[in-house]
């Protein structure tokens, strides 16, 4: 009796195995996508079409749909003489009172960052990459509190956490440095040194800092070999199952909007209330601007507080729906669009590989000679 049972079990087991094998053989080699798989062409073929014809993205209700796109050219083409002056000012450690310059934290060869969780100077924010900041005009600083470059640069010069100086003192300081005279003449036609000219030159230089084309851009231009199959799979996941595109979209992978991803405790375990610090609105509590993702593979550590050390860790946490580290509570309300994703380890690796395809060459910037 017992033996017969065993036979039946063994028989059922082998049928199950056979069925499982069949199912495996019938599954197309590509990833399941959330839409019905009536289209049998490969993901590579589907993504080789114009982005208008790409598979439908997984847009959440109420999101402004902005497709991913290739690097757009910088609309700011300032006079070279103005840029030259701006560059010198960017590197000059005499503007403020901490013997540092913009370039002390925005270090060009490090993709314009300092590679530490929070910038030296006692603030609680991570230094962002300067590439493509022209695109962020109107939404500058991690909480968007600076609506113009002049405002942002004034904060950088005057904040005790950055340069601890005063914009109004700069004209007299620079006037005492003879070598600045010809630079102002070249840039403005005369040697008058004013606050607004200083801000204008630094803004022009800041807006001229851009990233180079990435493999993702070359693929969009038709270079098939620029992306691996795994990266194309990652691109598909980014737009569909992982739904990253809802916030990271457009040519720079940011919707320029503000969201609460939690994990906002600073090193002293105080919450950074983000955008609410200056709007005072409860709905802005804990919100930060969506960062762009070009060259993000090189700009660890991540998040406004530099609390996440590696890109792998950042992706894993996003897949887990950003659990709150160290038992902290979310300051404000976690974005409803941050939720646990059902992804396999291969899919996670594909997503990572796609983000790495947004990388371009390391910036090569020659340091200017500071005037005396
Ligand atoms: C002590 C380090 C430090 C110095 C010096 C510094 N920055 Fe920054 N910069 C930061 C940090 C940190 C932030 C983010 C600040 C925030 O969100 O509160 C930032 C933000 C910015 C942003 C906004 C980028 C974005 O993603 O919104 C720009 C542009 C910028 N800095 C340019 C400059 C310029 C130009 C100077 C020199 C006048 C300068 N910085 C000096 C650390 C520094
Ligand atoms: C609800 C909007 C939203 C969604 C969805 C979203 N992100 Fe983000 N992402 C953000 C915001 C906002 C930040 C910055 C949060 C902070 O600093 O507190 C961020 C930070 C990041 C960072 C760190 C960047 C840096 O410079 O610090 C990476 C990498 C990233 N997201 C990738 C992804 C990927 C991959 C997905 C999909 C799995 C995704 N994000 C989904 C809004 C979003």
TrEMBL record:
Transmembrane region positions?
Answer: none
Q: Name one GO molecular function term.
A: peroxidase activity
The residue range of the signal peptide is: 1-23
Under the heading Gene3D superfamilies, the entry gives: Cytochrome c-like domain (1.10.760.10)
Q: Which domain of life is it from?
A: Bacteria
Any idea which UniProt keywords this protein has? Heme, Iron, Metal-binding, Oxidoreductase, Periplasm, Peroxidase, Signal
- UniProt xrefs under PROSITE patterns: CYTC
As for subcellular location, the record says: Periplasm
InterPro entries listed in its UniProt record? Cyt_c-like_dom (IPR009056), Cyt_c-like_dom_sf (IPR036909), Cytochrome_c_Peroxidase/MauG (IPR051395), Di-haem_cyt_c_peroxidsae (IPR004852), MauG/Cytc_peroxidase (IPR026259)
Q: Which residues form the Cytochrome c domain?
A: 81-243
The ranges of region (Disordered) come to: 27-47
Q: Which residues form a coiled coil?
A: none
Any Pfam family hit: CCP_MauG
- What is the predominant subcellular site recorded for this chain? periplasm
Its protein name is Cytochrome-c peroxidase
The source organism is Sphingobacterium faecale
